[in-house]
Amino acid sequence: MSTHSHGKDECSDYLDRIVFFLDNELDDADCSEVRVHLDECGPCLEKYDLQRTVKQIVARSCSESAPDGLRDRVRIQIREVQIRINEG
Question: What is the C-alpha to C-alpha distance for residues 40 and 10, in angstroms, rounded to an integer?
Fold first, then answer.
C-alpha cells in the first residue's frame, strides 16, 4: 500500500461507492476501480474495513429471533395502534 496521494473529492467518490461495493451492487469495472483505489489508499481502506465490520455485526445481529413474549407484546401494541387509527 502506498502513501495517501488521492484528493479529497476523489476519495469522497470512492467512499460513496464502498457501500455499493460491499453489497455487490457494482459492475465488474467499477469493482476493479474500487479495489485498485483501496489498494493504494490507506485511509479509504480503513473506512472500508470499518464499514465491512459494521455490516457483518448488523447481519449477525439481525439473524437472531426476538423472544416469543416480546413478539407477542409488539403484536398486541400494533393491533392497539391499528384500532385507534381505524376509530379516529
Answer: 12
